[in-house]
């Protein structure tokens, strides 16, 4: 093995361990956006589970309609937030330096 290859391998191993994600306690250190994204994903998962359950006859239609309405509201909220972020970004691009 060449010395340069050995140094490259060691450097790669050090960089990889430094860049690895650090395990955190559940919810510790999350920003408001990360918490909102987790809540959004959880809402979609719950809606999917209710829909699957309704398809096989395990959930009543009222629960299905309620889950779909909650999911629709969550998606509309996410789209509105995305639109506001894009609008703000475009406004920043229009600023003169």
Automatic annotation (TrEMBL):
Pfam families: FliE (PF02049). Keywords: Bacterial flagellum, Cell projection, Cilium, Flagellum. GO terms for molecular function: cytoskeletal motor activity; structural molecule activity. It is found in: Bacterial flagellum basal body. One of its GO terms (cellular component) is bacterial-type flagellum basal body. GO terms for biological process: bacterial-type flagellum-dependent cell motility. Belongs to the FliE family. This is Flagellar hook-basal body protein FliE. InterPro entries: FliE (IPR001624). The keyword Lyase does not apply. It comes from Pseudothioclava arenosa. It comes from the Bacteria.
